[in-house]
Specification:
2 domains; seven-stranded antiparallel sheet; 10 strands
């Protein structure tokens, strides 16, 4: 892993939202992601009042708590409980009867302007969250690629122009850098460095961009000797849209500089290469296990105009140079570039991966 230096790629303007095309909709139905839900994003937009939401110290957050008409609240709360049941237990309402909707929050920051619903267990006050957003095809591809190619499983549902996502729990990256990095004895520096190398490689191969510190979380798991660590993406808006290679490498974002420099200090180049190869091997294993499903997804993604042609061409030239393979120059879509990334590491490791599908 190299020092980020002055390379600080930033989105030049807000990414447009792309509709879910019939081919992707068919894929979602096939794998039970598309369901008929009682709540839509547009229904949640019909709130009457907002109250600024503050954190535990009284500081304002990016969220507002929204209030609905009293005649709507009872039906809406029951409908949101049903959505949660579909997300968590395949629609079995019998096991969520003791839950209630505690709060609905709305955020105007970012592209997705999501609603966040807090669900509380009436018996023990345990809380959980889920999000309702306007459906965006590139975000859906990002969620599904995370599910198939990362060590993390993700639950999400679509219904027309509505997207429902489960909450990704963890310590936000910017908070971890500020309050935890180098300050917690149980967080061994080599564990932090190892996970950053692996996360960096996963994002690059599957072309997940804009992984600045507030777009990923640290998941800390206590172990019998040392705490285990994993970095998880929690924002998939910038899946395969930008034409700059470094946009898909978290190490090059200015926000992540303290984390990168900390890892460089504690990690030898030879060890970093070992961890990078370990993650490449795991990526191929995951791709092989999900080869049919991944093949169908990339087949649809290759035919979906989720990025301008000039961005695809710019990125393919950078990737061709990076991997020393002219095959990239034949790619005309982001889906094809992801397939080619997997092929590049397959050639290095010597393991078959995603099968090509017949051309339509």
């Amino acid at each position: 892993m190299s020092d980020p230096g002055n390379l600080t790629p930033q989105p030049t303007k807000r990414k447009p939202s792309f509709p879910i095309r019939p081919e992707l909709r068919g894929y979602l139905r096939r794998y039970r992601r598309e369901r008929e839900l009682p709540v839509t994003y547009e229904r949640l937009r019909a709130f009457h009042e907002v109250i600024p939401l503050t954190d535990e110290t009284g500081k304002p957050t990016l969220w507002d708590t929204v209030i609905y008409d009293a005649t709507e609240m009872a039906d809406l709360n029951e409908a949101l409980k049903e959505v949660y049941a579909w997300l968590k237990v395949d629609g079995d309402l019998s096991v969520v009867s003791h839950l209630y909707v505690d709060r609905v929050d709305f955020c105007t920051f970012g592209n997705s302007t999501p609603f966040r619903i807090r669900i509380v267990n009436a018996y023990n006050d345990n809380q959980d969250y889920f999000y309702v957003k306007k459906a965006d095809a590139s975000r859906v591809y990002g969620l599904e690629l995370e599910h198939l190619l990362s060590p993390n499983r993700l639950n999400f549902l679509t219904f027309g122009e509505t997207l429902v996502e489960e909450h990704v729990a963890g310590i936000p990256g910017d908070i971890y850098i500020r309050d935890w990095l180098g300050r917690r004895a149980e967080m061994k520096p080599i564990r932090v460095a190892k996970e950053l190398v692996k996360f960096n490689e996963r994002c690059f191969v599957r072309l997940l961009g804009d992984m600045r510190s507030y777009n990923f979380v640290f998941v800390v798991t206590p172990d019998f000797e040392e705490a285990q660590l994993r970095i998880r993406a929690m924002d998939f808006d910038q899946q395969s849209y930008d034409g700059r290679k470094n946009f898909y490498l978290p190490q090059f974002f200015k926000d992540n500089t303290p984390l990168v420099q900390y890892c460089i200090k504690h990690l030898r180049v030879e060890t970093a290469n070992q961890y990078r190869r370990e993650e490449q091997t795991l990526l191929l294993q995951r791709a092989t296990l999900a080869s049919e499903r991944l093949g169908l997804l990339l087949h649809d993604m290759a035919r979906d105009p989720i990025a301008p042609t000039e961005k695809v061409h710019s990125l393919r030239e950078s990737l061709a140079e990076h991997y020393h393979r002219s095959d990239y120059l034949r790619c005309e879509s982001m889906g094809a570039l992801i397939r080619e990334n997997l092929e590049s590491i397959r050639r290095d490791i010597g393991r078959p991966v995603v099968p090509e599908l017949a051309q339509e």
